[in-house]
Q: What sequence folds into this?
């Protein structure tokens, strides 16, 4: 999962919106940090669970990492600057993106992660393009590191 995320971040054209969903512990934050690192983000990359969002400057623009788990209503998205997300040069990573249904951009990738019960450390990954987002490298069965 880590290797795939880094390659996605390294290769994807910007702007792009990556929506990450799955149960707690599925690997959303691991994947988001890996994509951010691949895109060029450096230093400490904390989960935005409490701050709700973090922004990292990269050579090509910026990475915006959001975690919507604690949102009680999609109306709270506007306080995060939701309407400006997806500007040229942005890689937007949204954990718990299903909490923003109806407000997600038309052109996006939806990534759903789930632990594989019979194989600790492995994740089931489904990836679906919505609209016409930039191409990304699709995953293969990789152990979650």
A:
């Amino acid at each position: 999962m880590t290797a795939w995320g880094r390659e996605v971040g390294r290769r994807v054209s910007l702007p792009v919106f990556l929506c990450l969903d799955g149960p707690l512990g599925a690997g959303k934050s691991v994947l988001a940090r890996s994509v951010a690192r691949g895109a060029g983000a450096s230093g400490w990359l904390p989960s935005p669970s409490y701050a709700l969002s973090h922004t990292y400057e990269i050579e090509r623009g910026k990475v915006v990492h959001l975690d919507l788990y604690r949102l009680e209503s999609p109306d709270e998205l506007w306080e995060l600057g939701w309407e400006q997300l997806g500007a040229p040069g942005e890689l937007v990573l949204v954990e718990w993106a299903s909490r923003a249904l109806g407000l997600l951009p038309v052109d996006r990738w939806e990534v759903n992660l789930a632990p594989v019960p019979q194989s600790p450390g492995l994740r089931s990954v489904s990836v679906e393009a919505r609209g016409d987002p930039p191409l990304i490298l699709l995953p293969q069965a990789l152990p979650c590191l």
